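[agent] plan:
  1. take the single chain provided in the ticket
  2. run structure prediction with default settings
  3. attach structure tokens to the ticket
  4. add a short note for the reviewer (M.T.)
[agent] executing step 1
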Amino acid sequence: MTYCVGLLLSEGMVLLSDTRTNAGLDNISTYRKMFFFEEPGERVICVLTAGSLSVTQTTLARLRDAIASPDASEATSILRAPTMLKVAHIIGDTLAQVRREIDEKLTAMEQGATASMIVAGQRRGGEMRLFLIYPEGNFIEATEDTPFLQIGEHKYGKPILDRVMKRSTSLTDGQKAVLLSMDSTLRSNLSVGMPLDLCVIEKDACRVTMKRRIESGDESFRAMSEAWSRALRDGFTQIKL
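[agent] step 2 finished; step 3 output follows
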């Protein structure tokens, strides 16, 4: 499994993913779950993935093939799509088609495969948008009231986001929030693991403005985790019944 989260803030977007994939307790691997499609200054698209690797990798491969095709058009290529809404439709349709094809192959084995994605981005002259795409290809969008979206093992990291996230939250505090959300998930679920991929896309930059790989043992992440644990313990002891 995995955990991915995206924030849509007034100053830009913050995205974070882990890299753990497991097919059983004795088959744990590391795979990147954060992917970029970029024309710096013109448009930027970031895709986070959760679920079956066969589904997500095939979907991403088809998206890349569509971009490179000599017949690429606004209807088929996410780097030519006129809006981020169209990007979400293209990715959703591709994901749904791949899932159906793989499900058909697995039917005889009484197995299934599923996946979901977070899609974030902006094209020059357009608004920043953040979508959660379901396995069926339909999607929802982050809003003013709920400026974050999650996929994978999201339940452990959701409470802090529910309490602190607002559209007006700064990019710095947004990074802090997603990292603490991930820290809570890492502590409670063994199917989520290091290293982590973090990125920031500033508003109207139309490019990735910050990328960071956080490895196991990263000192700044460890210090943040320990400070958060102390703050929770101190807050707990100060509350009176």
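[agent] step 4 note for reviewer: The CA atoms of residues 178 and 188 lie 16 Å apart.
[agent] ticket updated
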